Amino acid sequence: MLPDDVLVEVFNFYVNIYDRRRYTLRNPWHALVHVCRRWRYLVFASPRRLNLRLEYGGHGPLSEVLDVWPVLPVILISRLETLPRRRFRQKTNHWWENSVAALESEHQNRICEIYITDMTKSRWARFAVAMQKPFPELTHLTVLARGDVLPVLPDSFLGGSAPRLRTLWLRSIPFPWIWKLLLSANGLVTLTLLDIPDSGYISPDAMATALTAMARLETLHLQFRFPRSLLDPTSRSLPPHTPFLLPALTKLTFKGVYEYLEDLLARIDSPNLDYLRVIFFMDLNFDLPQLHQLICHAEKFKVFDHAEVLTSDRAIQLSLYPKTGVVDHHRPLELQIICRELDWQLSSLAQVCSSFFPLISTLEELEIRGRTSSHWQDDMENAQWLELLGPFTALKNLYLTDDVARRVCGALQELSGERATELLPALRNLFVEGLQSFEHIQEAIRPFVAARQLSGHPMVVGRWED
Fold it and tell me: For residues 179 and 278, what is the distance between their CA atoms, to the nearest angstrom?
């Protein structure tokens, strides 16, 4: 009894809104067209409203699939299958043959989305040749490789043009000429380039040139596999006096050497950034004026009052976020330094915190988490812990896990007199997680607590129940 327009709205909720929340690539409209003749007519009469797509996984020749359904855009999917059975692997190889044949066929103008998550070296040559022609309706492209390093993609990939592309996600794909393709993709919303091998290195100048065409870009992920050094500084081009504006960019992640990010940030301006994740390869001297400027000018980062430092046997990470309303594992600002030695971890992060002093100096809570690694030296310099804590001048509450507490308190107990109040002058509470060594830690830090009490800066040591 519902009117046609109301039914179409219900269908739209089921097909697009509900299904997207489940993060799937199914075709839920298939169920609708089998209910009755009226529903079938309404569905096929509203292909744009319902965003109708044919999902093709290579289970048969593409021409046979197209003959069954009306003329609709095609989503080509080749997923990573891990089942060990030999018969199943043979079947998936047959599906791949059908999929790459579809890319080579005359139906390329129907393909609007491509998702290939099982690219291997044995499949690469044929795929690379098939993708050298234009795909005029392509809006989403995902190619994820695994295993050996692949040959470099030629600059004729996609015919050198992708005017309708909105999402591009490549992993372990060497494509040094990608900036040429991106100049034609002025409607790109998401650009994800992960695990870029050395053979696919893109200079910061070339990347910035490509970004000038992306006024709609919202998400940028740029991550290199190895810490490739930049060219000789005398050969690097100077950044423009006025950076190019990326008004829609809200999410940025980067992994590589810090000089690359500095060069890139000198060329772009992203005032609406609200998520930043940076992973640096270890360096002895971090100089980050551009990153500092980016963080200090972003309005969304000015509400931070909480920091978390996480140490591990391979890296150290600093996360900043508002204490209230934060969702775990989605920190608005994260900075990680890849390094195994704890003393180098602390020294490098201390440099970063000093670079971000105006922001770090306003934080009121700090958590330091970590576990003792077998290669950490017990006689490590306590001065490095003190150097790390130095910029946190507004800190009121310090939370330490058990292993970290023994090291930090070992450094604090060496401070006496005025030195006990110069470091962390606003500190009121020090909380230690765990019960085994709490009494020992409380006794070790007693001189530091007494010195602060005498100087009029009292503090309390308690247990941290996370």
Answer: 22
Q: Are 216 and 165 in contact (CB under 8 A)?
A: no
Number of domain units in the chain: 1
What angle, 0 to 180 degrees and rounded to 10, lies between the N-to-C axes of helices 86-104 and 121-130? Answer: 20
What letter would DSSP give residue 16? I
DSSP category for residue 237: P
Of the candidates 211, 279, 278, the one whose C-alpha atom is nearest the C-alpha of residue 249 is: 211
Q: Is residue 130 part of a domain?
A: no
The pTM of the full predicted model, rounded to 2 decimals, is 0.88
Tell me the C-alpha distance between 154 and 359, whole Å.
Answer: 44
Torsion of CA 227, 231, 234, 240, to 10 degrees: -80
Which domain covers residue 32, as residue numbers? 1-52
227-248 burial, b if ≥16 CB within 10 A, otherwise e?
eeebeeeeeeeebeeeebebee
Asked if residue 19 is part of any domain, the answer here is: yes
Q: Confirm if 277 and 334 have CB atoms less than 8 A apart.
A: yes
- Lookup: tokens for 144: 């994820």
The CA distance from 337 to 277, in Å, is 11
Q: pLDDT per residue over 406-440, tens digit each?
A: 888 888 888 877 888 888 999 999 998 876 677 78
User: Does residue 34 sit within a domain?
Assistant: yes
* Residue 244 included in any domain: no
What is the CB neighbour count within 10 angstroms for residue 50? 20
Q: Name every residue whose Cβ is closer than 8 Å to that of residue 413 and which is 6 or more positions away in sequence.
A: 444, 445, 447, 448
Q: What is the pLDDT of residues 155-193, one digit of tens each?
A: 999 999 999 999 999 999 999 999 999 999 999 999 999
> Is the Cβ–Cβ distance between 397 and 365 less than 8 Å?
yes
